[in-house]
Design goal:
With 281 residues, this protein is α/β, with parallel strands linked by helices. It has nine helices and eight strands.
Length: 281
């Protein structure tokens, strides 16, 4: 493809779920041209790598390092990402693309999502909470709230962003390891820079969050409490944070090449070892 409109960055480990995720991503009704850049420590199966719209980069670092590298390799005018166990809702991307296409490069559109099942009484209540507009405001959550963040500013999960603008602000701070607070940090810097965030009134994604404290999600869970939240609060509850907008995009190069948290409770393999489900030479 000579010109690509949208690049989807998939940084994860659940390669067995990638085909379903990517099929849902590519199910657009419009003439939008798209690609997917996948990164992780495990090579995906041939049904993924044989698709000319999909490229794969071997990276054993934290998920945020993967997203940063994915954006660097992407060819799309816009980029977006989500967890690799999610599914895109049919028609949602067309609506979001129509909202952002042709807008100022500092316009960012955020899609809604759900987590877990939505069939039980508890699940339905959870979905209702997550789909409410207030859920996407940074200061709604006690963990991310700050005196130095206006109440109307939004989080940065599942956002459609002009790639050049994302990179201009330095992309993600790769001292974070998981997506949630790294993207919120970027959203704060962007809104501080005058970016306009729009919350689309449509559910874009369903994310099952199976085994939230185990396996791949377990490493993310631990990184949130042990690294990301302390780092986030140290940055954004400091009055000097009001001056923080741009960082060095190449900050990903200062992060470990192997994310030890992912394999801390498993056999420790030497850096560069190619192991895991779906890996073939």
């Amino acid at each position: 493809m000579d010109q690509i409109d949208l690049s989807f960055i998939c940084s994860g480990v659940r390669v067995e779920k990638w085909r379903a995720l990517l099929d849902s991503f590519f199910q657009m009704d419009s003439s939008l041209t798209m690609e997917a850049v996948c990164l992780g420590p495990y090579k995906p199966p041939a049904e993924v790598t044989n698709d000319s719209r999909i490229s794969f980069i071997l990276d054993e670092g934290a998920p945020i390092r993967g997203i940063q590298r994915g954006v660097l390799a992407a060819k799309g005018s816009y980029v977006m990402w989500c967890s690799d166990d999610c599914i895109f809702m049919h028609g949602a991307q067309d609506m979001i693309w129509n909202m952002i296409n042709g807008q100022d490069r500092k316009t960012v559109v955020l899609g809604k999502y759900t987590e877990g099942e939505g069939r039980s009484k508890r699940g339905k209540k959870n979905w209702k909470m997550i789909l409410h507009d207030s859920y996407y405001a940074i200061n709604t959550c006690m963990h991310t709230a700050s005196l130095y963040i206006p109440n109307h500013w939004l989080i940065g999960n599942n956002t459609y962003i002009d790639r050049s603008y994302f990179m201009e602000l330095g992309g993600l701070d790769c001292r974070f390891e998981g997506v949630v607070l790294a993207t919120t940090d970027w959203a704060i810097r962007a809104q501080r820079d005058g970016a306009k965030f729009i919350l689309a009134q449509i559910k874009e994604l369903e994310c099952p969050l199976e085994g939230a404290n185990e396996g791949a999600h377990g490493a993310i869970y631990n990184s949130f409490w042990e690294n990301d939240l302390p780092l986030y609060q140290a940055i954004h509850r400091d009055p000097n944070s009001v001056n923080r907008i741009k960082i060095d995009f190449d900050n990903w190069k200062d992060t470990p090449e192997v994310w030890r948290r992912r394999i801390s409770k498993q056999k420790i393999y030497p850096p560069g070892t190619k192991v895991g489900p779906g890996y073939t030479e």
